[in-house]
Design goal:
homodimer; Phosphorylase Kinase, domain 1; five-stranded antiparallel beta sheet; three-stranded antiparallel beta sheet; 13% strand
Chain lengths: 403, 403
């Protein structure tokens, strides 16, 4: 059982049974493989007698993206497992608990969160998550601060950075977010109705300059250990609970990429409210929840991050230089705006779309939504470096909608 | 002989003799240990019959700095050897050739350059190096471009970055350049006559902000594989030849740190011309050589780097985004100015000084020189982010001298 091979359900049960203090000895366990089979096997093992359960996630040595399989390092299972452990230590209760990591099998055994809903699904159902902004801003502030040179020993940070070098998964981001949408690439995917928008992206020099700056920052900045793929499909939510999952893209990069990912996905849902069968007041109310969440994510992040810095900052120069913190926070906001925009654009014309928009049944409404999301995304990218406040980001979304 | 131990001269000869195609079989070899014994053993092995020779450099597991020995990873020998090999491939003829690297012994066997002079010594003797600006700008352009995301595959760069993680040596830089001079640290070393200058550094908030920004860039930017310690004591020079040695501080960092190191050391020599027993015209002539070199290093670097980018740039976004190259080059110049300033300040009040200034015999002249070097350094740091041209950097040196 130690050499790598895709596990069977029976083997998954045996591994689950071997965990200490989880299931009762000799009890019956059931198992379902619930993954989508593209990147990982995901086994859900349950003890029917008590309802106790556990998740086994095993990486597959290939990814079914771009229509065919391409080889992908099993090392991402190690990165995911180690990132979950780091994040769980820094943001307790906001990620699934890891019970076991087996490097030979590229297997992580972790807490079952099936009492939560994938947040993207919840947003499509227009569920309000009153805890979300507070929880995710705690997750962002704690994980980003304490893995950065501001909040950890600079020499230990270099060793941690080394163990999170993640070329395969970073390449996916570099290609699909910071390159392909801006040229006529085979990987792009968009509806013919918005071909004019796609072609405009390919020839917009001013946009390319800003995307190049964002791409370069993604390639060369090692501010903190990022989740690396923090969209609403990587978040399990309940109105009273938030759990961040799937950090297999974790690497040392610019903080604004994680914050921007959250904001981009809230704004994609904001755009998707074009599709609304109910009354206008209800649509407005849900959009107000979403823009409030955008504002709450940033302002919660900013105040918590500054508080951690003031209380736990350990760098002798960065801690006391007058004005440095203010400059740093402004740069983070500007990065956040730009990365949010890039994350929105790729979801409309790039390889991977979002269900919030793709599931809108009416073609005309879907097209209007796509054009709106692109307009917001492009403006965020172009104005990123001039952003002075989170209100300006919200204003872009609101004013593009009014046009 | 494979387990690590400091080599004897007899062992060094045996290793030299075992090299293929260097010395004649059975010939007599002589050996001298010529290192300063603080960080490394350096054996000079010569074949008197022919004059052929070789250098064996072995890292010691400690460093005698700060007055007592502190442990230092032998891994720096691997880093130095691997950096020399990378640099030799990218900038042929501008670094010593590596004949052998033995990881167990932390030993690099390399080309003997004793027909060259350490450039700092040459500058103190007021030797003119007409090839220097052209050679060092080629070294900088080639090594920095082809190890960056602009000039090499982005995934291979991540693996190379991983193998050049260098916490011990980076810590020396972080402490001695980007921290200690700006507070009353035990490691600082300065003459009582300029205590007012040192205390002014400790309380200058505007300066601390700029140093914090430079420190943060040193900690988090992975633009390219740097030499990491490119002062004129790391350069062997002849009027017709330039060789860069000792890259044990190599790591992935901001390009401006290497370029700034070269410029800082030229400007330290510029300041040291306060000491001059000859006529004023000759002093002016040597200063003109030095400021010409400063200008030539940057303009040579800039034109060669842009040419490499235009011809060999491989990144699909960074290559073609309109205006990106211009923004990038301006940022490099600004980083260069700031890092040059930080490198000058630490040489006056920090732990490690430069012989150019410390060997000035007259105390009053030495003090005037130190104040001048500090004035240039501080102004470079404070104006760094506003720098628009290399002429502005030269103007700072010239106008501070005129005051």
């Amino acid at each position: 059982m130690t050499a790598y091979h895709p596990l069977t359900e029976a083997e998954a049960v045996d591994i689950a049974r071997s965990l200490d203090n989880l299931f009762s000895p000799g009890t019956e366990l059931t198992c379902n493989e619930i993954g989508d089979g593209n990147l990982n096997l995901v086994f859900h093992v349950t003890e029917p007698a008590t309802g106790k359960s556990v998740i086994l996630k095993q990486a597959l040595p290939y990814a079914k993206v771009v229509g065919e399989s391409w080889p992908l390092s099993l090392d991402r299972a190690r990165i995911e497992s180690e990132a979950l452990i780091v994040q769980g230590r820094l943001a307790p209760g906001l990620v699934p608990e890891v019970y076991l990591y087996n490097p030979d099998l590229a297997l992580t055994v972790m807490e079952d969160l099936s009492d939560h809903t994938i947040m993207r699904k919840g947003l499509i159902e227009r569920i309000v998550y009153p805890r979300f902004a507070d929880d995710i801003s705690t997750f962002l502030a704690n994980t980003l601060f304490f893995t950065s040179d501001l909040g950890m020993n600079q020499q230990e940070k270099k060793l941690q950075l080394k163990s999170f070098i993640n070329p395969d998964l970073c390449k996916i981001t570099e290609d699909l977010i910071f390159c392909d949408p801006y040229r006529d690439a085979d990987t792009n995917s968009f509806e013919e109705s918005i071909r004019d928008e796609a072609e405009a992206l390919w020839s917009d020099g001013a946009l390319h300059l800003e995307v190049a700056l964002l791409r370069e920052k993604f390639l060369t900045s090692t501010e903190a250990l990022l989740h690396g793929d923090l969209h609403t499909g990587s978040i399990f939510a309940r109105p009273d609970s938030t759990k961040v999952i799937d950090p297999e893209f974790a690497y040392y990069g610019p903080m604004g990429f994680d914050i921007g990912a959250v904001i981009a996905n809230l704004l994609l849902s904001f755009a998707a409210q074009e599709h609304w069968s109910g009354d206008e007041a209800a649509r407005k109310e849900y959009r107000t929840f979403l823009t409030g969440a955008v504002q709450g994510v940033w302002s919660g992040f900013e105040s918590k991050f500054r508080a951690l810095w003031n209380e736990h900052g350990s760098d002798p120069m960065l801690q006391r230089a007058p004005g440095f913190q203010d400059l740093y926070m402004k740069r983070l906001l500007q990065d956040t705006a730009g990365f949010a925009g890039a994350k929105m654009v790729r979801r409309i014309v790039g390889l991977a779309h979002v269900a919030d928009i793709d599931t809108i049944p009416d073609a005309a409404v879907r097209e209007r939504t796509q054009r709106l999301a692109l307009a917001i995304g492009k403006t965020l990218i172009k104005r990123g470096r001039q952003t002075e406040s989170i209100e300006q980001i919200v204003d872009i979304a609101v004013s593009e909608t009014a046009q």
